[in-house]
TrEMBL record:
One of its GO terms (molecular function) is hydroxymethylbilane synthase activity. This is Porphobilinogen deaminase. Binds 1 dipyrromethane group covalently. NCBIfam families: hemC. It is an enzyme of class 2 (transferase). The gene is hemC. PROSITE patterns: PORPHOBILINOGEN_DEAM (PS00533). Monomer. It comes from Corynebacterium coyleae.
């Protein structure tokens, strides 16, 4: 039986549970094994400690042989090639951004000076561009804890990935779901990365059955933008790709944290990495490096 490594949060175990069930459905029984990471023991915002503490702990467990498969939110993985890993992308969840606000309010309906929780620079910068009057507060904790800040009245609203809400069974809590071209999500948001050791033939055979071609192409295009820009997963960089019968449509942007500047490019083509590279190079030519500072 395959051992699937996952963090212990409700969202992480739900995501890994879907992978476990999908593997079982294609003839590869699996079970979850909780991996405790240093990030789980910290109260600091993710942007301060870095999402790498979560992903690296899972990868350590994988490469040390404690687990056979690791499941990550793909947007949290570094873009650098990992030669020890065989990685696939299964079917993707909705990549849009969601607002959870008191009294069912939308972003436009929030009162002036409303307190909105998010620690992601990409979300902060786009929110400030749309609503410079907002009082944006740092946000930490699992989905349930974050939603609790709105329920208690400590915050007027929070921003989250809609995929996490849906996977956690909280999709109906969103008071607004943004068009990804209006509020551009993180590269590979909504996509999972499932990996095993590259020398594990049985593991490769098992997870290869879960590959989704559309999700793979879209995520590759989006993450290539991040890689060429040499930006981390918490940088104010956003990208959303859509695979069609005629190729791939990619929209990506770089945003100043104070909301004062935004650079957005739209590119079409057929090769995901070539499109991602062209998009990133166009952003760099327009001054993306300075904007990201």
């Amino acid at each position: 039986m395959l051992k699937i490594g996952t963090r212990g949060s409700h969202l992480a175990t739900t995501q890994a549970g879907h992978v476990r069930d999908d593997l079982g459905a294609v003839g590869h029984p699996a079970e979850l094994k909780i991996v405790v990471t240093p990030g789980d023991l910290s109260q600091a915002p993710v942007e301060r400690i870095g999402v790498g503490v979560f992903t690296s702990a899972l990868r350590d467990a994988l490469f040390n042989g404690e687990v056979d498969v690791a499941v990550h939110s793909f947007k949290d993985l570094p873009t650098a090639y990992e030669p020890r890993s065989y990685l696939i992308v299964p079917k993707r969840e909705d990549n849009r951004e969601a607002l959870i606000a008191r009294d069912g309010l939308t972003l436009a309906e929030l009162p002036e000076g409303a307190r909105v929780g998010t620690s992601a620079p990409r979300r902060i910068s786009q929110l400030r561009a749309m609503r410079p009057d907002l009082d944006i507060r740092p946000l930490r904790g699992n989905i349930e804890r974050r939603m609790g800040y709105v329920e208690s009245g400590e915050l007027d609203a929070i921003m989250l990935a809609y995929a996490g809400l849906v996977r956690g069974g909280y999709g109906d809590r969103a008071t607004q779901i943004f068009d990804p071209h209006e509020f551009i999500p993180a590269p590979a948001q909504g996509a999972l990365a499932v990996e095993c050791r590259v020398d594990d033939a049985a593991g490769r055979e098992a997870i290869a059955k879960l590959i989704d071609d559309t999700a793979t192409v879209e995520a590759r295009a989006e993450r290539t933008v991040l890689a060429v820009l040499e930006a981390g997963c918490t940088a104010p960089v956003a990208a959303t790709a859509r695979a069609t019968e005629n190729g791939i449509e990619l929209r990506a942007g770089v945003f100043a944290l104070d909301g004062s500047r935004s650079l957005v490019e739209n590119v079409q083509g057929t090769d995901p990495e070539e499109i991602g590279r062209r998009t990133a190079e166009a952003l760099l030519e327009r001054g993306a490096a300075d904007v990201m500072k």
